[in-house]
């Protein structure tokens, strides 16, 4: 069995510093514990209890022995295992995560959104701890998260974290398109993106009334939109409602700026999205309107595609909750290490799906995220294959 990338990953995990002082007496190497945690997650073990039980029952696993290149694998006690996870250097583990996935990404269309780690609700002995959240940075073209920022659960920390992202050269290559929810429609953020030569599509929020009202007033002064498109690919939601969208774009044909604002520079496009929900059973129709702005020009069809792509980060969050049960995981203190490993797992599922979506390569005959997880559960060799596949080719 090919183990080139797997052993390279194990070697990368060795770079994470161990918090234990007397390293000469360590029976349970941190890199092995972290790898086994990831492997258990890939195989569908989602809770702390299930992961630990899987490790206990797989200490004689032949594939793990081959990966670790040792005859005997030792497993820590449950309490020691918990201490190892909560004391793992999250930034060092994040570095390993980024280095593994960066070769696969296009990094042209980026969605940024925060996710509250619900299992970090303050309780019990950790009443002095704050709720934790994580800012996920997703490549919309291949649908994987390629980086995280760690934060406390409050609005200002999400904004601060995004500012740090924009100031990091890794995320600010010229020409990228950033999209994010209305919370992050801040002048400092959007102007920084514009000055870096990147592009943005930003939602306008109700509590920023001056900006939104000015955008609506500007749109109303147009006799007709510069361009428009009706989403022909309407779809049925889980709530049995049919969704369709109309996108209207308003631009100044004789100049770049479509609207001047004293705080926001270079507003080139205003976008009005009319969403129609039709109840398939009752025929009841609900219409909502959303306004966005962008610092570049393109067609209504292209804007529609970019706007719809943004919701892929919400789909990613859905996979984290459904496939790895992130919302049910209790980790009152330092939940970020296990959160990174969950993202690692969902990324591997998604990359395999991208490569094999229309192929019958699984024993079940289907290629869905759930079936990929199901096959990993029963086949160690397939779990290794998810790590070994070079999706960058």
TrEMBL record:
GO terms for molecular function: DNA binding; transposase activity. Pfam families: DDE_Tnp_1, DDE_Tnp_1_assoc. Residues 152-321 form the Transposase IS4-like domain. One of its GO terms (biological process) is DNA transposition. Residues 11-100 form the H repeat-associated protein N-terminal domain. PANTHER family: H REPEAT-ASSOCIATED PREDICTED TRANSPOSASE, PROTEIN YBFL-RELATED. This is ISAs1 family transposase. It comes from Sulfurimonas sediminis.
């Amino acid at each position: 069995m090919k183990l080139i990338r797997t052993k390279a990953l194990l070697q990368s995990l060795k770079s994470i510093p161990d918090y234990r002082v007397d390293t000469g007496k360590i029976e349970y190497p941190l890199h092995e514990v972290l790898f086994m945690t990831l492997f258990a997650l890939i195989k569908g073990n989602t809770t702390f209890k299930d992961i630990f039980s899987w490790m206990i029952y797989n200490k004689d696993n032949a594939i793990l022995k081959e990966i670790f290149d040792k005859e005997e694998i030792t497993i820590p006690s449950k309490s020691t295992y918990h201490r190892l996870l909560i004391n793992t250097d999250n930034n060092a583990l994040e570095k390993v995560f980024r280095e593994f996935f960066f070769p696969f990404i296009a990094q042209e269309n980026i969605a940024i959104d925060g996710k509250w780690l619900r299992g970090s609700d303050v309780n019990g002995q950790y009443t002095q701890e704050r709720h934790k959240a994580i800012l996920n940075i997703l490549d919309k073209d291949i649908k994987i998260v390629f980086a995280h920022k760690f934060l406390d659960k409050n609005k200002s920390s999400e904004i601060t974290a995004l500012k740090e992202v924009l100031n990091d050269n890794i995320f600010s290559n010229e020409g990228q398109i950033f999209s994010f929810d209305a919370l992050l429609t801040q002048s400092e953020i959007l102007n920084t993106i514009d000055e870096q030569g990147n592009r943005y599509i930003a939602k306008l929020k109700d509590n920023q009334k001056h900006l939104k009202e000015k955008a609506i007033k500007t749109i109303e002064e147009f006799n007709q939109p510069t361009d428009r498109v009706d989403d022909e690919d309407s779809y049925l939601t889980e709530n049995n409602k049919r969704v369709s969208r109309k996108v209207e774009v308003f631009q100044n044909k004789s100049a770049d700026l479509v609207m001047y604002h004293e705080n926001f520079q270079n507003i080139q496009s205003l976008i009005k999205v009319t969403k129609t929900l039709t109840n398939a059973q009752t025929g009841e129709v609900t219409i909502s309107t959303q306004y966005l702005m962008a610092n570049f020009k393109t067609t209504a069809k292209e804007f529609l595609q970019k706007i719809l792509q943004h919701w892929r980060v919400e789909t990613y969050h859905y996979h984290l909750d459904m496939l790895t049960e992130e919302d049910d995981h209790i980790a009152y203190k330092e939940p970020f290490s296990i959160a990174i490993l969950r993202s690692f797992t969902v990324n591997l599922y998604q990359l395999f799906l991208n490569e094999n979506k229309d192929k019958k390569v699984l024993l079940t005959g289907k290629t869905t995220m759930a079936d990929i997880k199901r096959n990993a559960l029963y086949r160690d060799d397939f779990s290794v294959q998810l790590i070994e596949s070079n999706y960058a080719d």
